[in-house]
From TrEMBL, chain A:
Family in the record: Belongs to the ABC transporter superfamily.
Stated name of the protein: ABC transporter ATP-binding protein
Membrane topology: Peripheral membrane protein
InterPro entries: AAA+_ATPase, ABC_transporter-like_ATP-bd, ABC_transporter-like_CS, ABC_transpr_CbiO/EcfA_su, ECF_ABC_transporter_ATP-bd, P-loop_NTPase
GO cellular component entries: ATP-binding cassette (ABC) transporter complex
Keywords, ordered alphabetically: ATP-binding, Cell membrane, Membrane, Nucleotide-binding, Translocase, Transport
Signal peptide per UniProt: none
One Pfam family cited in the UniProt record for this chain: ABC_tran
Predominant location: membrane
Organism of provenance: Faecalibacterium prausnitzii
UniProtKB/TrEMBL annotation, chain B:
Bilayer topology: Multi-pass membrane protein
A UniProt-annotated Pfam family: CbiQ
Record InterPro entries: ABC/ECF_trnsptr_transmembrane, ECF_transporter_component
GO CC annotation: plasma membrane
Organism of provenance: Faecalibacterium prausnitzii
Localization of this protein: Membrane
Name under which the protein is recorded: Energy-coupling factor transporter transmembrane protein EcfT
Keywords: Cell membrane, Membrane, Transmembrane, Transmembrane helix
Stretches that traverse the bilayer: 12-41, 53-74, 112-136, 224-244
Source organism superkingdom: Bacteria
Transmembrane helix as UniProt keyword: yes
């Protein structure tokens, strides 16, 4: 209760529906000492993000129902603080870098933040300049926010919190969509803030990055309850069983390599002298399209073997997703892309999609109906138009059962959790019996257990039904664990690497 | 220069001019207003000629449509009713009818062009952020709405990107989504609702409170020259209404 405790939850009970039965936070008690760097870990759906929102006072104000419990920030009851005062104690850096700003440039956004907490206009410029110098973000100040990369956006958002001089910074999976380099830069900024006395509380799926810097790691289980705490890099091995019991990534551990030697035979997909540019043709001159965008991929040859899992590695923004779009004929390219030896330029799009399916980074973008079962039916019907209603529903139900989604078959796809959405997306795409599946960042916002579940399932399909999978990731461990063949996109070239090399 | 004109004053000036013009049928005044608007945009603002052209083109087409409609179907007597009158007088009466209709048609068409001129005068020379800031201070728009609009405004490029992605995803699933198809729009809207929630929470966590007092880095003010420009423009239109004949 002392001011040495940055955040204290006492017996908090929170649920989304007032009359609902399931408590997301079920008698949660937690205290975070001031001036420390603490990492909170827990499986998908254990209530980590809810806990963050409740601690920041965003819930129940914006939804949900707090039945009981007190929350204190530096000894002050949260109920007595309005958003203005709250921001002086605790602010949140969210997961999605795109959804944190309301102004046009970082400088304007920082002014907006300072206006919120009623800093006099005369002091603003000095504070912004000082923060920019300390964090080394001066070059970002006057760029339009929507043109920044994901990592730059997170840096910008973090500097907004810094300029407000908030005493505790809560990170809600803020590194989830960032590659290693951007995450490391952000961590460095955070450590600088910690030395100036801030408290940092990070929620994350993976502890590897935090391990050296963290004072304490806390593991949460269902209902937001503390399963284990007091973990740090010295006593980590003693807690290995806790990590495994909760289905979390144990720092430093590598899933066992499930890859097999690449099968001989004709590759399913081949690139021959393929070049892809960033963006679409920007100008037209005298009726001809003029390309002046930089190359993402230049004059690349690559083979993707049939009946295998192939990983494409590379930092974010290097053009991995765009390469996928080219394979689907949704982005212009030059050179030849061959599918089963046939040039895809000569295939009709519809025919191509019969063989190739794709699951995007954000699966919520590809749902076409408002019902889980219909979603699968659309996939089935598309390739077998003659299928009767009855048979279609039956097939869909079987498939849903196999993917562990039968209970949710009447739900709207948008109501599912991230992991379930991805499974549904894979299912509805593969319902058509495609031979090649393109997967864009399968780990996006998921814990160890659900990532492994989906990869294991795909592995099974690869081995039993001869499915070919190509997946994009910036997670080298994932690639090393699951891929039979690994390509790395470096300086506009696709370079083949062995699992040992990428680690 | 036009960019620095206080947006609220500018908006009211344009509005008053539009209302005044709607009480008059002066072709010369309409054309004069259009010319002044275009000249101001060309010489007193940073707007490119191309942009003016692109926006004015549909207005010109609409004006032409109105002109043709006015010419043939005006109430003053159409060419068809002329057919019924005596044959010998026909050339003269057709001419007369046409000249009367021609004037009506010109009135309608030029009025539309004058409106378009005033519209682009405001729209092209005003920055969204400045306009919102001015509404906040001059019209006492609650900060909750002002910053909500700003957030939505800056989300637009993201929404466009999202829409393109949804369309690609649909195409890759073998579903035809024509340019008018509602399904990608629905998906995009579902996502947008979620986004707006997230942004609202991010703003609140940064201390934003819809109704609490706040400080302001800059407060747009109404200067004497803002009012002088408004008076000049409204006065010009009033004088035109009094002294112009056609």
């Amino acid at each position: 209760m002392s001011a040495n405790t940055a955040l204290e939850l006492e017996d908090a009970v929170f649920r989304y529906q007032e009359k609902g039965k399931r408590n997301i936070l079920d008698h949660t008690s937690l205290s975070i000492p001031a001036g420390t760097l603490t990492v909170l870990m827990g499986g998908s759906g254990c209530g980590k993000s809810t806990l963050a929102a409740v601690a920041a006072g965003l819930y129940p104000e914006n939804g949900g129902f707090l039945e009981s419990g007190t929350i204190r920030l530096y000894g002050q009851d949260l109920k007595t603080l309005d958003p203005q005062k709250r921001a002086a104690y605790l602010t949140v850096l969210f997961q999605n870098p795109d959804l944190q700003f309301c102004m046009n440039t970082l400088r304007e956004e920082m002014r907006f933040c300072l206006e919120n907490i009623r800093v006099p206009a005369g002091e603003m410029d000095a504070r912004i300049d000082r923060a920019a110098a300390e964090l080394g973000i001066a070059p970002l100040l006057d760029r339009t926010l929507s043109t920044l990369s994901g990592g730059e956006k997170q840096k910008a958002a973090l500097s907004c919190l810094y300029v407000m001089e908030s005493r505790c910074i809560l990170l809600d999976e803020s590194f989830a969509n960032l590659d290693h380099e951007a995450a490391a830069q952000l961590l460095e900024m955070l450590l600088r803030m910690k030395t100036s006395g801030r408290t940092i509380l990070a929620i994350d799926h993976k502890a590897d990055l935090w391990l050296e810097a963290a004072d304490e790691i806390i593991l949460l289980e269902e209902g937001g309850k503390v399963a284990a705490r007091g973990i740090h890099c010295k006593n980590l091995p003693e807690h290995r069983t806790d990590f495994e019991r909760l289905g979390l990534f144990y720092p430093g551990s590598r899933p066992e390599r499930a890859a097999r030697p690449v099968a001989e035979g004709k590759p399913l997909l081949q690139f021959r002298g393929v070049s892809i540019r960033k963006g679409l043709p920007t100008r037209r001159k005298w009726g001809r399209t003029v390309y002046d965008a930089p190359f993402l991929v230049q004059n690349v040859d690559a083979d993707f073997p049939a009946g295998c899992m192939t990983a494409v590695l590379g930092p974010s923004g290097t053009g991995k997703t765009t390469t996928f779009l080219s394979v689907l004929k949704q982005h212009p390219y030059t050179g030849r892309i061959l599918f089963q030896g046939r040039d895809i330029a000569k295939m009709k799009s519809k025919e191509l999609y019969r063989h190739i399916g794709i699951v995007f980074q954000n699966p919520a973008n590809q749902f076409v109906t408002q019902n889980v079962e219909d979603e699968v039916c659309v996939g089935l019907r598309l390739w077998e138009p003659g299928l009767s209603d009855e048979a279609c529903r039956q097939r869909a139900e079987e498939l849903l059962d196999r993917y562990g989604l039968k209970r949710q078959r009447r739900y709207s796809p948008y109501m599912l959790s991230q992991g379930q959405q991805r499974r549904l997306a894979v299912l509805s795409v593969l319902a058509g019996g495609q031979e090649l599946l393109l997967l864009d960042e399968p780990t996006y916002g998921q814990d160890a257990r659900s990532v492994n579940a989906i990869m294991e399932h795909l592995r099974e399909k690869v081995e039993q039904e001869g499915l070919t999978v190509i997946f994009i990731t910036h997670d080298t461990e994932l690639a090393a664990a699951w891929a039979d063949k690994i390509y790395r996109l470096e300086d506009t070239a696709l370079v083949e690497k062995s699992a040992e090399e990428v680690l | 220069m036009l960019e620095r004109w206080n947006p609220t004053v500018k908006a009211f000036t344009v509005l008053i001019c539009v209302i005044l013009l709607s009480f008059e049928y002066l072709v010369s005044l309409n054309l004069l207003v259009l010319a002044v608007c275009l000249l101001l945009l060309m010489f007193c603002s940073r707007v490119s000629l191309k942009k003016i052209g692109v926006i004015l083109l549909p207005a010109c087409i609409a004006a032409f449509g109105l002109f043709v409609t006015g010419l043939y179907y005006a109430r003053g007597g159409s060419t068809q009713t002329m057919d019924l009158s005596s044959l010998s007088a026909m050339p003269y009466s057709v001419r007369a009818a046409l000249s009367q209709n021609l004037y009506t048609a010109l009135q309608l068409a030029t009025r539309l062009l004058a409106y378009a001129g005033l519209g682009i005068l405001f729209a092209l020379s005003t920055e969204g952020d400045f306009f919102i800031a001015s509404l906040l201070h001059q019209c006492h728009l609650p900060p909750k709405f002002a910053y909500g609009i700003l957030a939505a405004f800056h989300l637009m490029p993201g929404m466009a990107r999202e829409y393109a992605q949804v369309r690609t995803a649909f195409a890759a699933r073998g579903l035809k989504a024509g340019p008018l198809s509602m399904k990608p729009v629905f998906t995009m809207l579902v996502n947008s609702v979620r986004w707006s929630e997230s942004i609202a929470m991010a703003m609140e966590s940064k201390g934003f409170c819809g109704d609490a007092p706040r400080t302001y880095y800059t407060v747009p003010r109404v200067h004497w020259y803002d009012l002088a420009a408004a008076a000049l423009m409204v006065g010009g239109v009033v004088l035109g209404m009094l002294f112009l004949k056609y």
